[in-house]
Structures
1.
Amino acid sequence: MDLETLIERCRTGDPLAWEMLVRRYQGRAFGLAYHYLGNAEEARDLAQEIFVRIYERLASCTSAETFVPWMIRIGRNLCIDRLRRRRARPQAVTTPVEEMVDLAADAPGPATDLERGARRDLVQRAIARLSDVNREVILLKEIEGLTLQEIAEMLGVPIGTVKSRSNRARIALADEVRLLLGGSA
């Protein structure tokens, strides 16, 4: 079923259409929350909140073409709110980064899985070391696949600003990867 029809059926209260919409985008909502929060359990909770907010505001989504950026904007705002609350009330116990990585096997073999996992872990650790602005640009552009125009609209900044932030973020990410590998930045 195409997204336009699915959204319209959700607006009319069709529970099967809503279930289909959630199943189609739950991984994306979780991934977005996980990249912002760095904690799988908290990301699962926030993904549910994202869908509650989508359900409450589905009438404000103007078209199927804008649904994904609209959903990401909702998720981003909820993540930022959660991070603000977290900073106001820090947790007593922190979980090491190594325990937060949830890697899925693709089946080629253990050596390939280990190598991919190490690269993924390296990139995640490097992203975690970026400034909030750089991390957000990498997340929205490279991981979520939003266009520069969509990011500019979401952040409320000119597209040129997004371009320069994107370039600086990619350079900063490369520098962090080099530092983690033991090279000089």
2.
Amino acid sequence: MKDNLSIMIVGVGGQGTLLASRILGAAIIKSDLDVKVSEVHGMSQRGGSVVTYVKGAKTVNSPIINEGEADVILAFEQLEAARWLKYLKPDGHIITNIQTIDPMPVITGTTEYPTEIIKKIEDKGVSIQTVDALSLARESGSEKVVNVVLIGAMAKKTDIPLNVWEEALKSTVPAKFLDINLTAFSKGYNL
């Protein structure tokens, strides 16, 4: 793993971003690095924006990632990928779920959900990978493992060994849900 890793996990409340950050944090710790995690909830229980900063290095002084510092933005929803784009490094990478979730202004009819979000991000020259995480989660046996599919897709882009990721899952996910989560992780990892 490189000496410094700054990852933002972004989504909306209820998508499992916090479990994803715990899995990522566990994998970094198991790689013998320091890790700091900071979670920001914006009306998360009502479908509002949720962002988690995860930093790993030999020594991490602060978990906060400033604009232009994120190596990776792992977006659980397209609009969240666009919303946090300014935090990505010029040579950074976005991994985004293709799923869309209407925010409250769209639900109430005061605005429309933006169109062609992925294309607009690509047009800015940003490195972006799209994942149909919901379909892969359903193939794994539950829509609730979208978060682990996305962590799997991101894990493949790190140099943390697969066995370390599997150990991180085992130490983070309750035993009764481990098999389905390992399946979901594998589907994301093997894209």
3.
Amino acid sequence: MISTTGITRPKGTIAKSTDAGTPVMGTDVSNIYKFIKLDADGNIIVSNTSGSTNLRVLVDQVSTSLSYVGYAIFDALTSQSKWLIFRLQVSGTVTNKSFANTTTAYDKIWNDRATYTYL
């Protein structure tokens, strides 16, 4: 057992997230549009009575080595601060994923994706 943010769960499970979902990453940009919804205790939500949350996903593939990916609820405008944005940079066989302003909060503006700080 390991402990993450005060919650003990079996090794290998996903850490707790308070956001709408946690991105599941692969190295292939076409394969990263999956979300896992977690409850307040960090457990995976399989279904709920209100239905699933539809997410809007945008990808700006600037070049073969640089892409921006943004997630927001389905009705968010690209000019609203409702986006989780990350950048994928490929160097050889290594893909680096970094979040806009180093946070996973849904408070960024998609139109401003290139102006954020990525570490």
4.
Amino acid sequence: MPLKLIENLQKLGFTGNEAKVYASLVCLKQAKASEIAENAGVPRPKIYGTLRGMEKKGYVRIIEGEPTFFCCVQPEVLILRIRADFMLSLSETASELESLTPGSNNFTSRNFNGEKIRV
């Protein structure tokens, strides 16, 4: 799996193991924990904790049964979710920062020409 992909997933908030597991599941489609661990290069003692954590974050679905299988949320869905979460956080942060700016109702900045720009 490409190192750049793992690095980019980490920039989006994935841990190193989560990034490896997600990339592996995109390729595998659906797999047992032992198969994911082997494919992703994640130590077997850590794979179940990683998968359960990823389920809580909405990155992975667990298919209960004997054996238990795991599959990832489709990349398109994941990207849309991450984008929406990021935009919400950005908007909330801008509002909170604006409320901290004394005497200002607009969160503005100046570019290097001295012009006001709205953020």
